[in-house]
Amino acid sequence: MPTMQACPECEDEVQISQSARLNEIIDCAGCRSELEIVALSPMVLARAPEVEEDWGE
Question: Whole-prediction pTM value?
Answer without folding.
Answer: 0.79
